[in-house]
Amino acid sequence: QGGVGLKMRVYDRRICFVNNHFAAHLENVTRRNADFDHIYRTMNFNKSHGSAASDTSVQLHKAVNANGNQPDEDRPELAEADMVVFLGDFNYRLYGITYDEARDMVSQRSFDWLRERDQLRAEMKAGNVFQGMREGFIRFPPTYKFQRHQPGLAGYDSGEKKRIPAWCDRIVYRDSRSETIRECSLVCPVVAAITSYEACMDVTDSDHKPVNCTFSVDLARVNELIRRQEYGKIIESNEKLHCLLQESHHVPDTIISTNNIILENEETVVLRITNNCGSKKSAFEILCEGQSTSKQDGTKTDFIARASFGLPHWLEVQPSIGLIEPGETMEVNVHHENYYTQEEFVDGVVQGGWCELTRDKEAVLLVNVTGSTSTETVTHRINVRHCCAASSPPPPVSLLAIAAPPGDAPSSEGLTERSSRKSQSNHLQRSDAHFGASEVHDLHRLRNM
Known about the structure:
Blueprint: E1 2-10, E2 13-21, H1 29-42, E3 83-89, H2 99-107, H3 111-115, H4 119-125, E4 134-135, E5 169-174, E6 190-199, E7 211-219, H5 224-237, H6 239-248, E8 254-256, E9 260-264, E10 268-275, E11 282-293, E12 304-305, E13 315-318, E14 321-324, E15 329-336, E16 345-346, E17 349-350, E18 361-371, E19 378-387, H7 399-402, H8 412-430, H9 437-447
Parallel strand pairs: 2-3, 9-19
Antiparallel strand pairs: 1-2, 3-5, 4-5, 6-7, 8-10, 10-15, 11-12, 11-14, 11-18, 13-15, 16-17, 18-19
């Protein structure tokens, strides 16, 4: 026993279908009611990220709290739907009737008399199951139990158990209608009517006869084009709304002290942002649009966008975000600072500094200014350039020229000279010098001296 559900949106209205199989046997009416209650309360669908339909569904009359209102967090998801259809083998039987009496009534097509003994009809009338739902008028014979592959009404179970014929297979539904609202509207967006409800008596592959139901459904939806047009008319005709809309587009007039900043060494330059508006606060945020670096031949590298990576490591801006009172000025410190990664240090010595750290660098800062209540933004661009004094790489040193003969005993002066030469040879190696096989051998011998 259990249920499986399907939810779909039609013009942003939620329609759910739940196929069920409830507990069997004549005496298990309470279990069948409990099966419905459990499925209804626990049926969940994946939450979609699209626009949510307006909450206009009619809630089924389920358990309520002390105030008479069911808490929103406890509302079943099926209660939020605009239309719900339950279908399947509900297993409700005919009571107070024998097998032979039921067969006689079926053969005479006295379905009115049989309906009075239908468990589901009695339980729905008592409010014990499918609360707030309705079913089409039954004009077809009971759909259970048949012998497989035997057509016609003669196919009812005639075996040892002789199960009493019953309408086990049913379709019930609810739409958005309530006791006070019956017409389709935005308040009552889904109104359904049954146009046919019948059993497929020609099917003989099962001991049940499937049933089908055809609905005619009216849906109320919002025409978004007309809605936007009417919304525009309301704004234009309402002076208060018109003023609020204009205010949301207003950005206080701000002035920045410069559009070009040149930094030398590790100095700090003060950038001033002035709010010229006398009544509104202005908010600012400073971002980096991108940066470039000068090459050794004097040309610049391609401009690299920073996107959401923030400021370059060599540039500090404090504060980078703030609120400026009317008529006030905010001072922003723009500072260059050398930045080294762990790989750029070896034995406390900056590696490759002559070719990386001494290059000129440029960045474009964006000063985005908006009002404290506005949705618009005004952007100022500032070019920041860091200039370094050019330096040359250390001159190459021949390792063969500084290698001592193998048999000579080193003097204190020679040790000092070799120590200096060893430092130079290490510097050359880290500067990507190219050595032959004999030079590498001499370098190894020098390091072992």
